[in-house]
């Protein structure tokens, strides 16, 4: 029920998402050398850029990860503000690094360096455009949506329950009427974030276009060592293979459930 953290993205993306904060650690708020040093557009320059970037991301990731954990555990205005700051700075850093990595697009580099350069561009889950204020707005929207959803409650059988309560009841119930009522109640929590979600998509698509992709979906589909169009075609090909099995399995399970 609660939106889980995006742990399925690339490992480097996890480091980026950690970002860095405007708190008392001055080192954490300084722009990384990788984003401020002009590396020559050579194989050696690309390798030096990657080394500096990895070192800085490793340095700043722990603090922001702790901020994010505190917000997820203790949802208050202050922890939401802190996380929004961290995420905004992380997104700005990602955009900086992605732009720097693009300078090496036409440079012949070793395969491992090329993969890391690509991941710097593709590891951004929700890219913000480079214009001033965009990363901050996107971070505030994401934190606000997550907190609204995580703290949501709805009326069920004369009492208010949380999404965690509903999740447990649905997992244990075998009464279709009860599970339907719980699901419908759960769905009353999300409508208030509709406008925020639409705005999030607008900003992320603008950021994806800044990185050279048609939209955020194309950016995501590009992260599998093939082009976005090739990934879509491969997905369709695999689906046609498993579709008959899925339909037969669905029919079998439904018949067994009806038999009960």
Describe the SSE topology.
Blueprint: H1 11-18, H2 26-29, H3 33-36, H4 43-73, H5 77-102, H6 111-122, H7 134-150, E1 153-156, E2 159-162, H8 163-172, H9 176-186, H10 194-210, H11 216-221, H12 228-259
Antiparallel strand pairs: 1-2
Helix pairs in contact: 1-4, 4-5, 5-6, 5-7, 7-10, 8-9
Q: What is the count of DSSP helices, taking H or I runs of 4+ residues?
A: 12
Main sheet: strands, sense, barrel: 2 strands, antiparallel
Provide the helix percentage. 55-70%
**Which percent range describes the beta-strand content?**
under 5%
Q: Note the overall shape.
A: globular
Distance, first to last CA: 27 Å
Oligomer state of the chains in this structure: single chain
Strand adjacency order, main sheet: 1-2
Q: Whole-number radius of gyration?
A: 22 Å
Summary keywords:
260 residues, mainly alpha, two-stranded antiparallel ribbon, 2 domains
Short structural description:
The chain has about 260 residues and is mainly alpha-helical. The protein has helices at about 10-20, 25-30, 35, 45-75, 75-100, 110-120, 135-150, 165-170, 175-185, 195-210, 215-220, 230-260, and strands at about 155, 160. Strands 1-2 form a two-stranded antiparallel sheet.
Explain this structure to me?
By secondary structure, the protein is mainly α. It has two domains: 1-146 and 205-225, no CATH class; 230-260. It is built from twelve helices and two strands; from the N terminus they run αααααααββααααα. The protein has helices at residues 11-18, 26-29, 33-36, 43-73, 77-102, 111-122, 134-150, 163-172, 176-186, 194-210, 216-221, 228-259, and strands at residues 153-156, 159-162. The protein has a two-stranded antiparallel ribbon with strand order 1-2. Strand 1 and strand 2 (159-162) form a beta hairpin. It is globular, with a radius of gyration of 22 Å. 30% of the residues are buried.
């Amino acid at each position: 029920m609660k939106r889980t953290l995006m742990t399925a993205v690339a490992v480097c993306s996890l480091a980026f998402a950690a970002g860095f904060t405007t708190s008392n650690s001055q080192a954490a708020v300084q722009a990384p050398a990788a984003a401020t040093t002009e590396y020559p557009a050579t194989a050696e320059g690309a390798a030096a850029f990657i080394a500096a970037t990895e070192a800085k991301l490793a340095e700043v990731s722990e603090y922001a990860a702790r901020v994010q954990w505190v917000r997820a555990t203790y949802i208050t205005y202050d922890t939401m503000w802190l996380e929004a700051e961290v995420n905004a700075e992380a997104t700005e850093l990602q955009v900086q690094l992605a732009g720097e990595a693009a300078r090496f697009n036409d440079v012949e580099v070793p395969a491992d360096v090329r993969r890391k350069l690509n991941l710097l561009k593709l590891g951004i889950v929700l890219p913000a455009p480079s214009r001033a204020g965009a990363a901050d707005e996107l971070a505030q929207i994401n934190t606000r949506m997550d907190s609204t959803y995580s703290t949501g409650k709805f009326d069920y059988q004369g009492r208010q329950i949380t999404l965690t309560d509903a999740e447990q009841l649905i997992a244990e119930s075998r009464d279709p009427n009860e599970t339907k009522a719980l699901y419908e109640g759960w769905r009353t929590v999300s409508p208030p974030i509709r406008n925020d979600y639409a705005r999030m998509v607008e900003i992320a698509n603008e950021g994806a276009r800044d990185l050279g992709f048609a939209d955020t979906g194309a950016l995501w589909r590009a992260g599998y060592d093939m082009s976005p169009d090739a990934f879509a075609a491969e997905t369709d090909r695999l689906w046609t293979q498993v579709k008959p099995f899925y339909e037969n399995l669905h029919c079998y399970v439904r018949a067994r459930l009806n038999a009960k």
